[in-house]
Design brief:
There is one protein chain. The protein has a domain of 211 residues: Orthogonal Bundle (MetI-like fold). The chain has 316 residues and is mainly α.
Length: 316
């Protein structure tokens, strides 16, 4: 009896400590305590601050977009006047149709889509192969290769412009000039360490039992990649696809240097080249049209972007 009593007494402090830890984990640290929020004054202050923060961020993010859309509906004098007007005095929708014809936006859009989807195809082909080999095939010095690839993310993109330009100007071994060709956009886009890292992290999270079962059935690594890995990798493949398209779409410096031919320029470079010959309101309308595709991509696939970025964060 004495030994049982002693054991029970020893267990009580342990239970109390476990109870305290559970209570501490249940508590949430906030800027305002629950007691303050329970009162009317605390709730009023909280909702006022919350509303002000929401309004501030809304104006900061949507203000330039609103100014761009409405600027394309104004006259030239109203678009450049200072201070600017919040609402157009008269709506001129013909500015958008004029921008479409005068600046040849249809041809520029076609060029940009052509470059973007070509870059997407090459990234899905080579980046998936690189990420799969680093994740599952585990080549010699694979960790060192991955580390060097990730180290390139620390280098500013402008630092690499001159070496890349000299490379595409006279490609080693093949001795070819890639200027004014789609390859000058497609090939540099493949070397995307961030996309390879995202893909590798997702491939690492795939249960090994699936791959072992495919290997037992006699599937080669290439067949396993095609039949097992890729079908369950649609979320991360969607994220990489969106990043590839948007990356080419918003790029300006590299296409301006490597695509001097006006008939082969991208949308951003073409608008910049023709900016001096059109009124300001027509130029703003052209910029609005150029922003629509990327905005639609984000609005339509924002859920896929978030789910793809978080996919692979936990194993199992």
């Amino acid at each position: 009896m004495a030994s049982n009593t002693l054991v029970s007494r020893r267990r009580v402090p342990g239970r109390r400590r476990a109870g305290r830890r559970a209570a501490d984990q249940g508590r949430q640290r906030t800027l305002i305590s629950p007691a303050q929020l329970a009162g009317p004054r605390g709730r009023t202050v909280y909702w006022i601050v919350f509303a002000l923060v929401i309004i501030l961020f809304t104006v900061a993010f949507l203000g330039p977009l609103y100014w761009m859309v409405t600027g394309g509906l104004k006259t030239t004098q109203e678009a450049v006047q200072s201070p600017p007007t919040a609402f157009p005095a008269s709506v001129h929708t013909e500015n958008y149709s004029r921008a479409w014809t005068v600046m040849d936006l249809s041809g520029l859009l076609f060029n940009t889509f052509y470059y973007a989807f070509g870059a997407l195809a090459f990234q899905l082909l080579f980046d998936v192969a690189a990420a799969y080999s680093l994740s599952r095939l585990r080549p010699v010095f694979g960790k060192a290769i991955l580390g060097m690839m990730l180290a390139t993310l620390m280098i500013p993109a402008t630092v690499l412009v001159v070496p890349q330009y000299l490379t595409v100007l006279d490609v080693p071994i093949v001795q070819r000039n890639l200027l004014n060709s789609p390859w000058v956009i497609w090939l540099p886009s493949v070397t995307n360490a961030f996309n390879i890292f995202l893909l590798k992290r997702f491939f690492d999270s795939i249960p090994g039992e699936l791959l072992d079962a495919a290997a037992i059935d006699g599937a080669t690594p290439l067949r396993t990649l095609r039949s097992v890995v890729l079908p369950i990798s649609r979320p991360i493949l969607g994220v990489v696809s969106i990043f590839a398209i948007v990356g080419v779409w918003k790029d300006f410096l590299w296409p301006m240097l490597t695509l001097p031919d006006p008939g082969k320029q991208t949308l951003n470079v073409g608008i910049y080249s023709l900016a001096n010959g059109v009124p300001e309101n027509v130029l703003i309308a052209a910029l609005t049209i150029a922003s629509v595709p990327t905005l639609l991509i984000f609005l339509l696939f924002q859920r896929n972007i978030m789910s793809g970025l978080t996919a692979g964060g936990l194993k199992g």
